[in-house]
Amino acid sequence: MAEQEFQSFLQEKTKERPLNKKKLGKRAMVTIGMAVLFGLVASLTFFLLEPLYENWLHPETPVEIIEIPEETEDTLPEDLLVEEVQPVEIEQVIPDAITSYRDLYVNLGKLSNQISKSLVTVTGVSQNMDWFNDAYESKDQTSGLLIADNGKELLVLVHSQVLQKAEDIHVTFEDGTQLSATVKEHDYNTNLSVLAVSKEGLGAEFLEKVEIAILGSSRPTSLLGSPVIALGRPFGNQASVAYGMVTSLDTTLNLIDSNYKLLTTDIYGSDHATGILVNLSGEVLGVIDQSFNTENKNLISAIGITELKRIIETMSNGKAGTYLGVHGTDVTPEAHEKLGVPLGAYITNVEMNSPAMNAGIQNGDIITEIKDTTIHTFQDYSEKIRDCFVGQILTIKLMRQSQNEFHEIELMVTVEEQK
User: Fold this and answer.
1) Of 55, 170, 261, 390, which residue is 20 to 30 A from 353 by alpha carbon distance?
2) pLDDT digits over 397-411, tens only?
C-alpha cells in the first residue's frame, strides 16, 4: 500500500508557477536600456579619444608653405650665392696655356657634378595595347629638378610631356633610389608640373644627400654673352652636359595672362632636350624648353627662371592656376611720353569665351587698376591675377581709346581656373 501511494505521488504533476509578464517586460526594458547606454558611452569615448590615439601612433608631419624670395631690380647672379654653396673658381683661359685650359674644364666638370645632385630622372609608365591586343608597358623619361622640401614631401619641377598618359610616375635620384610620385599641380601655360615625393619612410642618410636647387635670376642684361652649363638631357639622353654661352635675351613668350623671357644659347642639342641652364655660380637661370624655339630648333633655349618663380611657388603650394584669358605687353615710355598713352597692361589679344571677353575687355584696352591695386606693367597684371583665387570677382579699371581720347571704364570679372 505504501508503495502504491509513493508511485501515485511521483505521478502527480507539479503545478508551474505563473509568469509575471509585467515584471519580465520591465527586466527586458532595463537590459535593452543598459545595452544602449553602454553603446553610447563606448561610441562617445572612441570618438573623443580616437584622434589622440591616432596622432600618438601616427603623428602627422606639418606641411610647410613654400615661399620663393623676391628678386631686387639690380640683382646679379653672383650676388645670389647661398653660403652653403661655394662657387667654383674658374681661372682665366690663356690661349697658349694648355694647363689652364685643362683646369678650366676640370673645374666645370666638378661644378656640373655638384649641380647634378639636384637633378632627378622622371619616368612616366603607361599601359598600351599592340596590334594583337596584347598589353605592354610604355615608359617615357625626362629630367626633373628638386626645387623644395615642404617638410612632408620633396617637390620636383618637370616638363609634363611624360605625364600626359602616365598611370604611374617614378622619380629616380642620383644614387639610383627610385620612389613613386604624384602630380601636385600643373601649369597649362608653360606645360610644367610640380611632383610630390613622400618623405615617409625615407632615412636621414638619404635625405642628407638630397640637394635642393638654387634658383638664380634671368633678369640682368649682363647675362648676354655669359657662360652657362646645360644639364639634364640637353642631347636627349640621360645625364648629358654641355657648355656654351647665352646668345639672346630679347625673345618674349606672350602666353595667356603671363609673359616669359626666352634665353637662347649657342649650345647645339636635341630638339627634345629637357633640363636646366645654370651659371658658373651653380644657380638655375632657366628651364630648358625647345617647344618655343621655332627658328633654330637644335639650339638649346630655356624659359627664364625669374618669371617662373611665382608659378613654381603657386604649384608647390598646391594652388590651382588662375585664368582671365588675355595676352598683353607693357606701354613703352616713348608711347606714354610722346603719345599720351596711359601706363598699364596693354591688351593685344583676348581669348575666345574667356572671363575677360565675357566681361567686355577688348584688344587695345589698357588695364590700369585691379581691385584697388595700380597696374603699371603687364608683369604687375600677371602677378595680381596669380594672387587671386578661383571664383573671385575682381573690379578692373581700364582705359579705352575713343576718338583720340582715353576714357576710363570699370568692369567686373570672375576669375576662373586655368585650363
Assistant:
1) 261
2) 999 998 888 999 999
Q: Which helix (H) or strand (E) holds 255?
A: strand 240-255
Rounded Cα distance, 192 and 186, in Å: 6
Evaluate whether 155 touches 66 at the Cβ level (below 8 Å). yes
* Cell numbers found for residue 213: 636647387
* Termini Cα distance of the chain: 110
Q: What is the pLDDT of residue 8?
A: 56
Three-class secondary structure of residue 206 per DSSP:
helix
Q: Could you tell me what percent of the chain has a pLDDT over 90?
A: 58
**Dist CA 236 CA 273 (whole Å):** 5
Tens digit of pLDDT for each residue in 123-138?
A: 988 876 556 555 545 6
Q: How far, in whole angstroms, is CA 92 from its chain's centroid?
A: 39
Instruction: Find the mean pLDDT for residues 371-396.
Output: 94
Distance, CA of 67 to CA of 313 (rounded, Å)? 6
d(CA 408, CA 308): 32
pTM: 0.77
CB atoms under 10 Å from CB of 12, counted, come to 7
Residue 363, all three cell numbers? 584688344
DSSP state of 215: B
Q: How far apart are CA 209 and CA 403, in angstroms?
A: 65
Q: How much is the pLDDT for 346?
A: 96
* pLDDT tens-place string over residues 82-107: 445 555 554 554 455 667 878 888 89
Residue 268 has pLDDT above 90, yes or no: yes
User: Nearest CA to 156 among 141, 173, 139?
Assistant: 173
* φ and ψ of 411, to 5 deg: -130, 155
- Dmax over CA atoms of the chain, in Å, equals 147
At residue 24, the 3 state secondary structure works out as: helix
Measured in whole angstroms, the distance separating CA 311 from the mean position of its chain's CA atoms is 7
- Cα 195 to Cα 59, 290, 291, 355, 393: the distances in Å are 23, 21, 21, 29, 30
* Three cell numbers, residue 65: 608653405
- Are 202 and 173 contacting, i.e. CB atoms less than 8 angstroms apart? no
Q: Is residue 29's pLDDT more than 80?
A: no
